[in-house]
Design goal:
The longest helix is centred in the middle third of the chain and has 82 residues, at about 35-115. By secondary structure, the chain is an all-alpha fold. The chain has 2 helices and no strands. It has one domain (about 30-115). It is rod-shaped. The protein has helices at about 5-25, 35-115.
Length: about 120
């Protein structure tokens, strides 16, 4: 096996640097049609992503509005039922009180009749 001397190592490093520089200089510029096409494709993908995000947000807001409307309807129905139950209870209490009063008046009348 032959050992590389300093000159060979130096020339190999120089060739590697030149190859990297050549590779860098071969890259297309910003005004190249391929670069512009890739940039446009990335912009289209980004716009599509933004549209999907906006659509999901709109669906979420619509669902939230629908749920809120349902909750309000349920709350209104419950309030109506509670009001109706309170009115029935009040009517029942009034009827019960009238019955008690009638029984009490009958007792008083029976007591007066005994005297």
């Amino acid at each position: 096996m032959k050992q590389k001397d300093f000159g060979e190592r130096l020339s190999a490093a120089s060739r590697a640097k030149q190859a990297m520089a050549a590779k860098f200089h071969q890259r297309p510029g910003a005004d190249d049609p391929a670069v512009a096409e890739r940039r446009a494709a990335r912009a289209a993908v980004s716009a599509a992503r933004d549209a999907r995000i906006a659509e999901r947000e709109a669906k979420r807001l619509a669902e939230n509005a629908r749920v809120a409307t349902e909750r309000e309807a349920i709350a209104a129905e419950q309030a109506k039922q509670e009001k109706h139950a309170a009115a029935e209870k009040q009517a029942s209490d009034a009827r019960l009180e009238a019955e008690r009063k009638a029984v009490r008046d009958a007792r008083y009348a029976a007591r007066k009749a005994r005297k």
